[in-house]
Design goal:
Strand content: 15-25%
Distance between the termini: 48 Å
Cofactor: [4Fe-4S] cluster
Function: Iron-sulfur cluster transfer protein involved in the assembly of the mitochondrial membrane respiratory chain NADH dehydrogenase (Complex I). May deliver one or more Fe-S clusters to complex I subunits.
Oligomer: single chain
Low-confidence stretches: 1-30
Pfam families: ParA
Number of helices: 11
Protein name: Iron-sulfur cluster transfer protein NUBPL
GO molecular function: 4 iron, 4 sulfur cluster binding; ATP binding; ATP-dependent FeS chaperone activity; metal ion binding
Length: 325
């Protein structure tokens, strides 16, 4: 309706300008159409600003108010624009690395990937969560890390064929109906992409920062950039990028090969103006221990790959301190 009104107003002014060839301004006579064009441009600018302001007000009304998770000090989300880049493995070893660096810290792990939950396998956990007296689910715990996942609530091979509203309801239950106790950090393993789950979590709870995981490959970096830009739009600090599968070292001759390219994530971090949190190598031990439910940070703590994850965890803590200062 406002566009229609504005169109009619512009049309009326053009007719008036043609009918009256001159407009009086003080004692001078100036051509009418030029003044008319200036007026319409000014009117268009005013209308555009007013429309944008109204849209912002309407969007603000529709957004949910952020409510902290009871007992949780800081939430760290681990995300990627694309699947298959080692995001879940990174999330698990990040949580364990935080504890390895500071055993006094309490860390929890939330699997928000409803369609493809990986935490039960990676953390070697099975079973259904019990309920406490307040009817809240109690997380399953291994390696000192309490975990919650949709994988605990469905059969291992059962496909989760849900529409968006059901997924949002499940995420709300995983966020609000779990007794986490008291945690210094809650690491959230996000699903790949930039969809409903990412927006729902970012808008419903205060997120201390996001960690973006990518391989150095160009096709993965494209989606990693989209993920980083999404978090910036919803005002979630991007703590930095993790360059996963950065290099492969032959176990026989120790020759290093950059299978997915070299320094792609480092270059993207520079472009985005964020920090590269660390490099994690492509190593057979990481894959084997993950499949056994024995993450390398706890099963091979003295290995170079475990040290890589601990360095990432230390960099994350440092970035959180910078963001909060």
């Amino acid at each position: 309706m406002s566009q229609f009104t504005y169109s009619r107003l512009s049309h009326f002014l053009r007719i008036s300008a043609n009918k009256f060839s001159v407009l009086r301004t003080g004692t001078e006579i100036k051509p009418g159409p030029a003044c008319c064009v200036q007026f319409t441009r000014c009117q268009r600018s005013v209308d555009s600003k007013a429309l944008q302001e109204r849209q912002k007000q309407q969007m603000a009304k529709g957004l949910p108010r952020q409510k902290p998770i009871t007992g949780v000090k800081q939430v760290i989300v681990v995300a990627s624009g694309k699947g298959g880049v080692g995001k879940s493995t990174t999330a698990v070893n990040l949580a364990l690395g935080l504890i390895a660096n500071d055993p006094l810290k309490s860390v929890g792990l939330l699997d928000a990937d409803v369609y493809g939950p990986s935490i039960p396998k990676l953390m070697n956990l099975k079973g259904n969560p019990e309920l406490n007296d307040n009817n809240l689910m109690l997380p399953l715990t291994n390696y000192g890390v309490p975990c919650m996942s949709m994988g605990f609530l469905v059969d291992d091979v059962a496909p989760i064929v849900w529409r968006g509203l059901m997924v949002m309801s499940a995420i709300e239950k995983l966020l609000r109906q779990v007794d986490w106790g008291f945690l210094d950090y809650l690491v959230v393993d996000m699903p790949p992409g930039t969809g409903d789950v990412q927006l729902s979590i970012s808008q419903n709870i205060p997120v201390a920062g996001a960690v973006i995981v990518s391989t150095p490959q160009d096709i993965a970096l494209l989606d990693a950039r989209r993920g980083a830009e999404m978090f910036k739009k919803v005002n979630v600090p991007v703590l930095g990028l993790v360059q996963n599968m950065s290099v492969f070292q032959c176990p026989n001759c120790n020759h290093q090969t950059h299978i997915f390219g070299s320094d792609g994530a480092r270059q993207l971090a520079d472009t985005l103006g964020v920090k590269l949190l660390g490099d994690v190598p492509l190593h057979l031990n990481i894959r084997e221990m993950s499949d056994r439910g024995q993450p390398v940070v706890v099963s091979s703590p003295d290995s170079p790959e475990a040290e890589a994850y601990r360095k990432v965890a230390a960099a994350v803590v440092q970035r959180l301190e910078e963001v909060n200062s």
